[in-house]
């Protein structure tokens, strides 16, 4: 059987300095809905809001829609990463939460054979903690960081209570990211095993 292939992706959160980024390996056979789950996992988002991919001249979200956002969208679950690459698309966008409008740039850095030692998707590395949910977009996040960095700031105590702890921009919580990614990889492996079993029963 031919080796499964992966795309190595660089995920960058736009319009924030210092750059918040993650590097992952994802199967080419994964859908854009699956990629959404991966981005949620590595950025530590909670999947509270809508999302959309923008690739070439097409838009993909949770379902096929008419002109909900002024343009036609296609179901993200029906489109594979391989399809985009086959169309020559190696840079595309992911937008999460249309209120806070977290826009990410995704770059396909390489396409490689999967290593049978690992389960995929796989988190490789990253820097700087992503914003918490519902912080108010890039300007709200800047205000949040300012207040969090100054114990005497009038909003410091209130924001620490709202967030649940101090906010360390350098701590991306690698253990938690890996835990989330392992859950996705395990679910995918079990799904593939179940599919193979059902195929065998038909023969």
UniProtKB/TrEMBL annotation:
Residues 7-174 form the Plasmid pRiA4b Orf3-like domain. It holds the Pfam family PRiA4_ORF3. It comes from the Bacteria. InterPro entries: MM3350-like_sf (IPR024047), Plasmid_pRiA4b_Orf3-like (IPR012912). PANTHER family: LEXA REPRESSOR-RELATED (PTHR41878), TNPR PROTEIN (PTHR41878:SF1). This is Plasmid pRiA4b ORF-3-like protein.
């Amino acid at each position: 059987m031919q080796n499964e292939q992966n795309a190595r992706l660089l995920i960058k959160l736009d319009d924030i300095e210092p750059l918040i980024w993650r590097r992952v390996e994802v199967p080419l056979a994964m859908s854009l809905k699956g990629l959404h789950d991966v981005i949620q996992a590595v950025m530590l988002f909670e999947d509270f809001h809508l999302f959309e991919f923008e690739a070439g001249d097409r838009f993909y979200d949770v379902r096929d829609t008419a002109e909900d956002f002024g343009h036609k969208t296609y179901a993200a679950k029906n489109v594979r990463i391989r399809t985009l690459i086959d169309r020559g698309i190696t840079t595309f966008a992911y937008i999460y939460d249309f209120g806070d409008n977290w826009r990410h740039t995704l770059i396909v850095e390489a396409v490689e054979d999967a290593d049978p030692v690992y389960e995929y998707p796989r988190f490789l590395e990253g820097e700087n903690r992503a914003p918490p949910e519902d912080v108010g977009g890039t300007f709200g996040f800047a205000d949040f960081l300012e207040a969090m960095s100054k114990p005497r700031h009038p909003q410091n105590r209130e924001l620490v209570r709202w967030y649940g702890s101090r906010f360390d921009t350098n701590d991306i919580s690698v253990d938690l990211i890996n835990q989330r990614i392992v859950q996705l990889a395990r679910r995918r492996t079990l799904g593939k095993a179940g599919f193979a079993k059902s195929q065998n029963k038909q023969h």
